[in-house]
Amino acid sequence: MRHFKENKRKYIEAAIAVIAIAGLCLVYIAEENNIEGYLANTFSSQALRLGEVTAVNASTSEVTVAFLTGPDKGETTVTTEQPVSGSPSVNYVPYVTGEKVILAEDSLNGIPGQQYYITDRFRLPVLLFIVMLFVAVAILFGRIRGLTSIIGLGISILVLGWFVVPWILHGADPLTVCLAGAAMIALASLYLAHGFNKRTTVALCGTLITLVVSALLAVLFVNAARLMGFGTDVTFYLTIGTNTVLNLRGILLGGIIIGALGVLDDVTVGQAATVVELKDANPDLDFKELYRRGMTVGREHIASLINTLFLAYAGVALPVILYLVAFQSQIPLWLTINGEPIAEEVVRTMVGSIGIILAVPITTLIAARAFGHPQKDKKSAPSR
């Protein structure tokens, strides 16, 4: 009984984790079974059907598919595999029996003799499973903090989906909207993940100040490099596919801010926690000594973060980099780097990295000022 009382919180957190994971499993099972019904209602007036591959004839490339939704449910149709034109066989994943696919009605009769053709694989169950796995792992090992962090992540998604994106599409200034959205995300995610305390408030202040500095740097260097925001084909389609005139340069600036926010949270929370732990270990440390020792740890943090944003952005931009190298081999390297696609990534990476580095001294300074005052009672610990 005594052991239970001493470890009561751990048992409660473990029980919550088990209940949450069991609930997530039930949600996955229920939603996977209901996705077909959802699609049937969603696409009831559209020429899309969900089907399951029942037979594959490799010699003729014919695929037999049974309809799972729509008025033809239960019936079958025969279609032909259509690999991407010019794509080598190593990049092609053949259909297999039991695989679910999305069928579209061939209203233009593009393939003679076939009323339907396969437009894509049905991936929603796999995507749902990996999301559920992520949530389960976060709750299992993070317990209460993991659960509140997931709630913070949900709020971040809501802010992006229901505030940032709609306002930009309605013609609002993307940089202003992204800064406001980033502030809301930081406010919700930090307090939910790390609790309502002085340390989290210090981290939040460091994050917001660094975001403003990063925004100023982004505006300065995007204008200095004369970037227009046409670094990818997607931005070009945005200009012709919407009824609103979009500020592509502003979207570039806003993307830099949102991209840097996630790493900023980690840096500012880490530095604030470092200063608090230093003060706990030695309550006699004053502002100057706390800042000096906090920066000693912060420099190690900076060293480990130098490559973080570069590798993240390089991974996203890898197809662009490969394209530029493979198909523009006759163009000098300096001219390729000078082009807008590469220039955008350079500015994006450098501004984000500078912001992350500046977050260390900014947050350390705020934390040292907040916790560096003399302690009247050395036995009392600073507010955490």
Structural category is: alpha+beta
CATH topology-level name of the largest domain: Multidrug efflux transporter AcrB transmembrane fold
**What proportion of the residues is helical, as a percent range?**
55-70%
Question: What is the overall silhouette?
Answer: globular
Mean pLDDT: 80
Low-confidence runs of at least 5 consecutive residues: none
Strand order of the largest sheet: 3-2-1-4-5
Q: Distance between termini?
A: 30 Å
Biggest beta-sheet profile: 5 strands, antiparallel
What fraction strand? 5-15%
Oligomer: single chain
Describe this structure in words.
- There is one protein chain.
- The chain is of the alpha+beta class and 384 residues long.
- It folds into two domains: 75 residues, OB fold (Dihydrolipoamide Acetyltransferase, E2P) (Beta Barrel), CATH 2.40.50.230; 201 residues, Multidrug efflux transporter AcrB transmembrane fold.
- The chain has eleven helices and five strands.
- A hairpin with a 4-residue loop joins strand 1 and strand 2.
- It is globular, with a radius of gyration of 27 Å.
- The mean pLDDT is 80.
